[in-house]
Amino acid sequence: MNVVQAIELPVSDYQDLSPEELFERTVAAKKALGDQVLMLGHNYQRDEVIVHADLRGDSLLLSKLAAERSQHPYVVFCGVHFMAETADILSRTKQTVILPDMAAGCSMADMAAIEQVDQCWEELGRVLDVENEVMPAVYVNSAAVLKAFCGEHGGITCTSSNAKAVMEWCWARREKILFFPDEHLGRNVANKMGMPREEMIVWDPFMPYGGNTKDAIRKARLILWKGHCSVHQMFQPEHVAYFKKTYPGIKVIVHPECHENVVNQADLVGSTEFIIRTVKQAEPGTSWVVGTELNLVNRLKNEEIDKQVFFLSPTVCRCATMYRIDGAHLCWCMENLAQGIVVNQISVPEDEKVLAKLALDRMMAVS
Ligand code: 13P
Ligand code: SF4
């Protein structure tokens, strides 16, 4: 009997294929795989990718789906690296998670390295009884090792949709929160909860004691890591002012990763899923300006034709890393999978997985 050994198909073979061919071949590979594969798509993904997703959503919803859908041996995650890692941490042992392009990272997640967080914890420990006074809370936009850090120190993860509930959980248990890596999400939620400015400090990982005096550290209740999203920092208060002046009655809806100067002027603030749901459910004839990633806003604009939908920034701001997942990479990983070859597997080391899951499970319990 002749046994034909499958050979990995190179991604370069896909780069010059037409969108139509990529679409048809991806559909065919998906059909051949059937229930073997579950394709998850984050709301920021390109149209050519999201069209194939079985389920789409924000990072919280996708984390929950990854945890629930244990019947599919393969999960193809169309999103960024930290999301695929989360899926791997929450998935059942026999599930294999695939990220179509390994270069799909997150610039915010890269702003906190474990060595810097360890150093911060050690410096805080010189001033405070850190294990009893400080609760570490990490935004899911972070490497698995940071989620593991939180798991190990009694801490928790959060997403943009449950950050308030998570912060309440933290303060019910410890006096202070170390919130990383997004300074803006932490501050925006604390502002909404009425926290005085004097109780928040910013931790710059490149400065001794984060750039703070020991006295300021003792007084703080919220320690905000100096990190941000390169996409959401593009939105400015003058953009909000322009739309409010030019389109009286327009509603401004933004993501909580935006600067507080933008968030404080917006009518509504929430996760990508909240933004989509709110605009979709709005009255026909209403006008909306949206401050989040461009792919999501363009899709809303095209789908909600009975409403006016604008993008908040005058410049194009796409998440360059989300954009790495294109039709070619998706087709490439699906066709390889259809012939039994796993490319780009995301596999979190087992010890990290156990600790990171503790922090994620605590979050799931409050979500
Ligand atoms: P959501 O949790 O709102 O989907 O946001 C994820 C993200 O990366 C926003 O930049
Ligand atoms: Fe990361 Fe910002 Fe892209 Fe979200 S939009 S994945 S926070 S770089």
UniProtKB/TrEMBL annotation:
Cofactor(s) recorded in Swiss-Prot or TrEMBL: [4Fe-4S] cluster
Cofactor: binding details: Binds 1 [4Fe-4S] cluster per subunit.
EC number of this enzyme: 2.5.1.72
Keyword set includes Secreted: no
Gene Ontology molecular function terms on file: transferase activity
Reaction(s) catalysed (UniProt annotation): iminosuccinate + dihydroxyacetone phosphate = quinolinate + phosphate + 2 H2O + H(+)
Pathway linked to the protein: Cofactor biosynthesis; NAD(+) biosynthesis; quinolinate from iminoaspartate: step 1/1
UniProt subcellular location: Cytoplasm
Family to which the UniProt record says this protein belongs: Belongs to the quinolinate synthase family. Type 3 subfamily.
Name this protein carries in UniProt: Quinolinate synthase
